[in-house]
Amino acid sequence: MTHAYAIGAVAAVAVTTVAVGALGLRRARTTSDFYVASRAVSPRWNAAAIGGEYLSAASFLGIAGLILAFGYDVLWYPVGYTAGYLILLAVVAAPLRRSGAYTLPDFAEIRLGSQVVRRLASLLVVLIGWLYLVPQLQGAALTLRTQTGAPHWLGGLVVVAVVLCAVAIGGMRSITFAQAFQFWLKFTALLLPAIAVLSVWHQRNDTIGDGYPTVPRATTVTVSSPTTVRVEQPETLTIHGAVDGRPVGGPVTLARGEHHLGAHTRVHLQAGDVVPVVTSLPAQHNADWLRPLGSGQDHPLYASLSLMLAICLGTMGLPHVLVRFYTNPDGRDARRTTLIVIAFLSSFYLLPTLFGAFGRRYVPDLLLTGNTDATVLLLPERMLAGLPGTLLGALVTAGAFAAFLSTASGLTVSVAGVLSQDLVRRGRDPRRAHRIRAFRLSAILAIGVPYLLSLPSERIGLAAVVGLAFAVAASSFCPLLVLGIWWRRLTDAGTVAGLVCGGVLATIAVLITVVGGRERGWIGALLEQPAACTVPLAFVVMVGVSLLTRARVPADVGRVMVRLHVPESLDLARARPVPDHRSSPAIDRSSHPPPPLADVSTTSTD
Amino acid sequence: MNANRVRITHPRTEAARRVPARPVIHEIDEQTQLGEVYMTSLVRSQRRLALLICSLTALLLGGTALVGALVPGFSRLRLFGISVPWLALGVLIYPLMIGLGAYAVRHAERNERDFTELVEGK
């Protein structure tokens, strides 16, 4: 019965997404509509759409799971996700909008006029996009498996199918509305259960105890694959299956230390039993869990600060974020939209913290399997008995699916845009039909590859993988954007050197962490959180090589600077007659005097 | 609402690669030359604001991290039964970031207004 509600919720979200997409179809008639959703998008809708696209599986499921497992230090993730927009607002929002760039490669070309830089930026967009898509699809698989018992490959496939449907028929236009809708769905889907959970907790007058995490009531945990767990204090548990290689079927006394559980072993925990913790997670005392830097990692202060740097500076380099700024009317509105985004995110991120903290008390058995990303999904049903719990569980499932769909579709559109422009569509066939076909083909490529990558199941937390995508973005695109906007002497050679240096180092660190597993000590800390080293290095290289190649400063840098920084109102008043909307439908009233670099071509209206 | 909706076109790559179809708009050129000094001052004031916001953000986040790491008593503080570090990082830091954002928006717009008045007043 529980499954029926959850499946219904997922189906409802999928159908609504495609339906909203189809609604936009009637208007998506030209290539420009198809890509940039035209201009009929108000700032608040736009902010909701940005929020909808940004709040991914990592935010919706991952943070609460990490908080359950690691405690206080994880609070830095949501703070960083929000602070990223603050930095974006202060440093790049308005100039980026005024540049008229639709993608990061566009910006690179507008600013530096170099095809090499453009290609390099395209490669990085695809890399970061894929890195960000993999955890979304893994999250979908996890959600569907937890809530309905579906096989591992199905959840991701559902997301792929829905995203491709919505993207193929509607393009960008539909996605703006679908994204805004999904932001409110996600917010509601966490808010209502949070209120319910809070009131239940208030009645119970319960607190997180001082010892190791214990289950609040009798719980049976089934270990699906062989698992090594750590027991902090000796205890007797009823276990069916295999412990340390011996078959067991009844009470077993586990000594302090590590124990190996065979596949399909069932562990029956009684109320008050301490939960054995899988060795990939810290088996902390609750007091350590509560305190700063108590998560038992090596060099936790470095890890926290480096993570903050990656997220704060990486946000501006995420491929799907920039696209949204293009639908703002002008630079001023781009700033205001960003401020609304910060307010939306601030409200949203109060909730995962709540779920994570309650999760420590009410679903600590997830520590045994390491499946902590399921915290948000399981908590409502555990705390509320009967139908209300089931319904809230279904609502949370719907929200989680909205999270995968919105982020995945935003990323797919961005990656596909870059692929179709720079990598798939060779030649200059200007026909609209050809362009749109290339775009659709690229969309399949854009989400198909990460789907295949997501299939080998990895046990790294969702939020951690997303953090790595941020590290790559911060080490490559952040220096490009910051220096491109604020420093006239940036050259193409300097940019290439900086992008290659930062991008390659961060990517290597990511690959080692994802493929090779965790190292201890400083090396492990550096590889897991590379940003604190790679970001300054990328800046230094970019500045240094630019200074060495002074002769290569683009000749039109002055004009580009005018375009980036001068408010639109001035140009409207001074340099341009009020555009005649009927005769020149393609003129962008907000961009600066028809930028010579990016010729405004008329759209076909046939 | 849609009466004066304007359709725009993404500056597509091949458009950008083409030699500019029209001569460089005279007004831009004029503005670049006339307003070089003004431009520098505008960019400088906006850059100063951006740096200020970044520093304040770094101070806010870094400060919270350092207090948590270096002040041992901090983690044991409680307010209404809730751990103060959790309250600070889980709740209180958000309104502060919104405040910083609002400050950034207000001052960036003021810088632009000043610039507009300066240029138009001439």
Question: Could you walk me through the main structural features you see in this protein, from its secondary elements to its overall organization?
Answer:
The complex is a heterodimer of chains A (606) and B (122). By secondary structure, chain A is an alpha+beta fold. Chain A has helices spanning 2-25, 31-36, 43-54, 57-70, 76-91, 93-99, 104-112, 115-148, 152-204, 286-290, 300-314, 319-326, 331-348, 350-362, 366-369, 375-383, 386-424, 432-454, 462-486, 492-516, 521-528, 531-548, 557-565, 568-574, and strands at residues 219-223, 227-231, 235-243, 246-254, 257-261, 265-269, 277-278. Residues 572-606 of chain A have low confidence and may be disordered. In chain A, the strands form 2 sheets. In chain A, strands 1-6-3-4 form a 4-stranded antiparallel sheet. Chain A has a 3-stranded antiparallel sheet with strand order 5-2-7. Chain A has 2 domains: 2-202 and 290-552, Sodium/glucose cotransporter, CATH 1.20.1730; 219-274, no CATH class. Chain B has a domain at 37-121. Chain B contains 4 helices and 2 strands; from the N terminus they run H-H-H-E-E-H. In chain B, strand 1 (78-79) and strand 2 (82-83) form a beta hairpin. In chain B, helix 2 crosses helix 3 and helix 3 runs antiparallel to helix 4. The model of chain B is unreliable at 15-29 (pLDDT under 50). At the A-B interface, helix 2, helix 5, helix 7, helix 11 and helix 13 of A face helix 1, helix 2, helix 3 and helix 4 of B.
